[in-house]
Amino acid sequence: MMRFGNYDSPVLLESLGSVLAHSYGYDGDAKLLAARAYLKASYEVEDEAAQTLYRGLAAEALMMQTPPGESDQISLAAVEADFRRELQEADRWYADLRQRELGWIAAGQNPETEFDKLYASDPELTGMDVADPLTPDERLVRGLIVLTLVVVAGVCVVVAGLIVLVRKLRKRRAV
User: Fold this and answer.
1) Is residue 48 part of a domain?
2) One-character DSSP codes across 101-150
3) Domain assignment of residue 3, yes or no
4) Residue 54: which domain range?
5) pTM of this prediction?
6) Do 76 and 139 fall into the same domain?
């Protein structure tokens, strides 16, 4: 539906945001994309109450989302500023593409063929040059370390509990 239908439908964007906000995997989540989907939905509705609700969902999607190496949560204002810039860039890209396609048609060229030639590789976008600080393997190792620490802590708690239980039983027998 995003490709062939009404890609700016608030209901569709809300659904996309919901799926992205609640999808977790070993390699991370998609909270920033979810926030963008909710923000776009808020831009597409005229009702102020609906706008407020969508913005609330965007803010909620960003809960506990921090930039790499930092502890402060990413603000909705920061995400929205980036998103507005990205939307403007996309609008310029689309307007340029439309003019090229009209030129190709006017010149009697096949727009599909020309498009494929023009975009043999993906277009470059601003902000996409930021590398993830951790590779999927590094994230997996980090997760395994955390899991190991949790298991060790659990074993320590069980051992401590058994020690307390044994001492209580010995105390009762001694009486």
Assistant:
1) yes
2) HHHHHHTT--HHHHHHHHTSSPPP-TTTTPPPSS-HHHHHHHHHHHHHHH
3) no
4) 10-96
5) 0.64
6) no
